[in-house]
Amino acid sequence: MKQIGVGLLGFGTVGAGVVDGLQRNRALLSARLGVDVVVRRIADLDITTPRGVAVDPAVLTTDAQAAIADPGVDIVVELIGGTGAARVLMKAALEAGKSVVTANKKLLAEHGEALFALAQKRNVDIYFGASVGGGIPIVRVLREGLVGNAVVRIHGILNGTCNYILTRMEREGLPFGTVLAEAQRLGYAEADPALDIDGFDTAHKAAILALLSYGFHVPMASVPVEGIRGLDGLDVTYARELGYRIKLLACVARVDGAVAVRVGPTLVPLNHMLASVAGVFNAVMVRGDMTGDTLYYGRGAGREPTASTVIGDIADIARNLRTRQARHSRAAQNARETPRLCAADETRSAFYLRLMVRDEAGSLGRFTGILGAHGVSIAAVMQKAAGSEAAGFVPVVALTHAAQEASLNAALDEITASGVVSMRPVRLRLLEE
Amino acid sequence: MKQIGVGLLGFGTVGAGVVDGLQRNRALLSARLGVDVVVRRIADLDITTPRGVAVDPAVLTTDAQAAIADPGVDIVVELIGGTGAARVLMKAALEAGKSVVTANKKLLAEHGEALFALAQKRNVDIYFGASVGGGIPIVRVLREGLVGNAVVRIHGILNGTCNYILTRMEREGLPFGTVLAEAQRLGYAEADPALDIDGFDTAHKAAILALLSYGFHVPMASVPVEGIRGLDGLDVTYARELGYRIKLLACVARVDGAVAVRVGPTLVPLNHMLASVAGVFNAVMVRGDMTGDTLYYGRGAGREPTASTVIGDIADIARNLRTRQARHSRAAQNARETPRLCAADETRSAFYLRLMVRDEAGSLGRFTGILGAHGVSIAAVMQKAAGSEAAGFVPVVALTHAAQEASLNAALDEITASGVVSMRPVRLRLLEE
């Protein structure tokens, strides 16, 4: 049976999982693929620390460029991460005419355009299934399974750390800081959690979903991103009372010929499939023009799930090499024109608002009047019991009908300046149906 | 741009959806694929009734064999259904060296082995994505996305008619017959609903999932199948009180070197993702040895969702034709050995039991004693308020720990014969965690 050689760059958690999976399921894979996939080179700065997987020492090297150049290496797997060495080495691999598998969402979100152009020029492929959704084959689903669909919209829970924190805040009534500290202690959150909790990891993944769906490279700086760092447990509780659960959602959607990409905490109705996604799990709901709503759910990170998707990509390239063809470079260029990206405040949504309103006659009328003057109509408004937040102010929760975000923002500016509230109102989106 | 011609056999609901989708998203598809997919022939006995989609009359024919033989037809799409003409024509297409796309689960479940062998001999492919899960690309996920995984088990809600009936029985407290009649009136159930409600449609799909996961053709006659026709609303209510929802599940799992395939109504915990699948939607939960649990959800039937998956398969073959290769014939032969199929009563499960027990002292002790003598231990037992079911008998609900099904059946035989109950106890599985 023909052998296909893999050169692995970066022997960390996922890298070790890939080596382990390829060894453990080798017979199964070769029976399924008709080729035998073997790891020929593993490059890492550290080649001495045990990774809990048996490796022939002759395979290990600290010289990544030599691993790429090795004639026995047909496929390069980049699992270094970041945009430094990873970028240099991925370029080197593509220049050498070798297809690349990567899980590096940041590199693709920030430098994907140049890398895909290089791959196409060299007639090789970049596979990036593990860059979004870990063990969920969502990239493949968008690229192949739903290939006959125009994507209407996508909503995704794409960061397990945030979903874990939100799940515990809701179930146990704990404040954000307490749950974050415990998530860090348990290894579910990084020592520097900013990339996760401020929404940037989710935004990188949203950009890749937009690339797959609409065929253009989203400029990251133009994506409105809100994380969950500022989320108050009070709003988790009120949302629940109203029949919603707060999730950090990526939203990618076609809106009147433009494309909206954004990330933010969003109220999801309890009976919606996305509301059932608990703990570190991820899920992506895709509405195609033919399929209607479909959902994909699984572990969004971790050694084995991520390695599973990397191996799925290796398998695809191995099948392509059997027939000596690159097949998917076009996947990133499926639109003839580059759609316009919506401005942050251009989109419409229904909103949840929490206002700390001065506890005196006429307060309610003043803020609803300001909203109405900006064309924002109220679907429901509830005064809650006063807590210890601010003496003389009481929390009021309002749900709006769908409104232009720019109008809502202007109304909230005016309400804040009016002195009728003690702080700028909390504003969260509602998942549109 | 190279053109790829499709010959469509069967111009029914899904066939019209395929033609419509290929026309509507033609530019998108050709940009994504690098080839232009055109419908060259449409064969049906009825070529006069309007299908709500514009078709060049010259494309229509009543001669399916001529459509297959047409040199402009590169791909044959079989949407006739059944195992008569569909089988003859699929064989003719494969013999003619043309790859086939089909949604025909019954044909594949009953005659797949011979058809796949013929495809391999002719070096062409059979794509059958739409045979399971409608618009959910579950076949592709198993064949490609999870290719690096050994499949541990699969649980699927695969029949929208049954799920619709179960959802309404639970939400509205209605009896089976009432909901079925209404489902028939609304077009959610066939005039002859047996294939759906007796579980055979689900079993055909389970056989295909087993083929993809374990690489062997499951003999349909060996698959234990229970439908929902006999399901009593009382058990839906009691299950709900215990924190469960009853779903018709297909289960495919590796059990000690053998493979278990079965279909039956099953109690699913309310917080489980499968419990959230309501109405006509389908979902499949796949546990891979690397990914852990993943779930795929969407519309399991209907013109547009099913056509979406057919088009995804056409796209794959079109890409293959661009590179002049068949790629997936091996998918059905991924196991070196044929695993043994578990006997119906060989598997272990926890069970829900409802017994109509004689309302007198000692009754409870007698039946729990018989269960215990057969090695079946009870996790919980509750006596319910007597209804109008049978004078002198009261309903008792019990949940067992995991037990061998053969032992449980023997115990239930003995309990029924003992006279302590008015009817054979109701016995439903609990979803194992």
Q: How would you explain this protein's 3D organization?
A:
- Two copies of one chain form a homodimer.
- Chain A has three domains: 3-134 and 303-333, Rossmann fold; 139-299, Dihydrodipicolinate Reductase, domain 2, CATH 3.30.360; 348-430, Alpha-Beta Plaits (2-Layer Sandwich).
- In chain A, helix 1 packs across helix 12 (303-322) and helix 4 (85-95) packs parallel to helix 5 (105-121).
- In chain A, the strands form three sheets. In chain A, strands 7, 8, 9, 10, 11, 12, 14, 15, 16 and 18 form a ten-stranded mixed beta sheet that branches.
- The first copy, chain A, has helices at residues 13-24, 26-33, 64-69, 85-95, 105-121, 138-145, 160-172, 176-186, 194-197, 200-214, 233-241, 303-322, 363-373, 405-418, and strands at residues 3-9, 36-43, 60-61, 75-78, 99-102, 126-127, 151-157, 244-255, 258-269, 281-288, 292-299, 340-341, 348-349, 351-358, 378-383, 393-400, 403-404, 426-430.
- Helices cover 37% and strands 25% of the residues of chain A.
- The first copy, chain A, is α/β, with parallel strands linked by helices.
- The first copy, chain A, is built from 14 helices and 18 strands.
- Chains A and B meet through helix 1, helix 2, helix 6, strand 11 and helix 12 of A and helix 1, helix 2, helix 6, strand 11 and helix 12 of B.
